[in-house]
UniProtKB/TrEMBL annotation:
A GO molecular-function descriptor: hydrolase activity
Protein name: 2-succinyl-6-hydroxy-2, 4-cyclohexadiene-1-carboxylate synthase
Alphabetic keyword roster: Hydrolase, Membrane, Transmembrane, Transmembrane helix
Domain of life according to the entry: Bacteria
Transmembrane segments: 127-152
Length: 277
């Protein structure tokens, strides 16, 4: 089972589950915990091969991971803790796992908050994936990860989040990194399916205005899916929970408290004004 940590404030308090991205760990949420535990029970998980989660494999899984396998790891933790329903917050690739969880077990998902959401791969992202697949066996994986971090988070104010993710990635074994990289082969058909299917689950997208690779696709999807909302955070890049933690926390908590009260937030527009980046 995945390594996890809980913060319980009350038995009847709603649960919030944090899911990090590839190469990270639950430690990337350190700027969120203090605020969220004022209102919610919190569950943090380390995905397989990340943080303090030991490698979880069977003979078949050892050869290649897929999104269903790594998503069911999270469901296994929910089952162990007897958490029947929760709010889910993800960043980057973690948003794909949450969206996949909403397909595998929709009854477990009360709402979703997608930070730096990956909805569609633009041309630049597809080129990065192709470069990674070509060079992954030829160069040290940290060279690739550092290169990707610079492309996705290029500005000086992204340095904190960029350095943190690179440092976390150094803790992931190269073989484990390669297994996770195989997930890129599933991305395009899976993301296309997610774009075409509207879950109707209340979903807030929190995106940095400088997340130039992924923000345009999110702007499109919130105009086509019901119960989907977008808030754009100024002076922030892809990892907006680290770049602008106060804004991320306040917007996410307001959304969740309104969902928990069975009402939609009044300060979130269903079709947002586009932001020039």
């Amino acid at each position: 089972m995945l390594h996890y940590k809980t913060h319980v404030i009350a038995e009847d308090a709603p649960w919030v589950v944090f899911v990090h991205g590839a190469g990270g760990s639950s430690s990337i949420w350190f700027l969120q915990i203090k605020e969220f535990v004022k209102h919610f029970n919190v569950l943090l998980v380390d995905l397989r091969g990340h943080g303090r989660s030991k490698q979880i494999t069977t003979s078949k899984e050892e050869r290649r991971y897929n999104f269903e396998v790594v998503t069911r790891d999270v469901i296994e933790v929910l089952d162990a803790l007897q958490i029947q329903r929760a709010h889910f917050i993800g960043i980057s690739l973690g948003t794909i796992l949450i969206r996949n969880l909403s397909e595998l077990a929709p009854e477990r998902v009360q709402s979703m908050i997608m930070g730096g959401a990956i909805i569609r791969l633009n041309v630049r992202a597809k080129v990065l994936v192709a470069i990674g697949n070509f060079f992954k066996s030829l160069v040290p994986y940290m060279w690739l990860y550092t290169f990707f971090a610079w492309i996705i988070m290029p500005k000086a104010r992204h340095r904190k989040s960029r350095v943190m993710f690179v440092n976390e990635a150094k803790k992931v074994a190269q073989k484990e990194f390669m297994r996770w990289f195989t997930l890129t082969y599933e991305l395009n058909p899976l993301l296309k399916y997610f774009e075409e299917k509207d879950t109707g689950i209340p979903t807030l997208y929190l995106m940095g205005e400088e997340d130039y690779m992924f923000l345009p696709a999110v702007e499109y999807i919130v105009s086509h899916h019901t119960n989907s909302y977008l808030q754009v955070i100024s002076n922030s890049g892809h990892v907006c929970n680290i770049d602008q933690p106060h804004e991320f926390n306040s917007r996410a908590i307001d959304f969740l408290r309104n969902i928990s009260a069975r009402s939609l937030p009044q300060n979130v527009e269903a079709v947002p004004q586009l932001v020039a980046i």
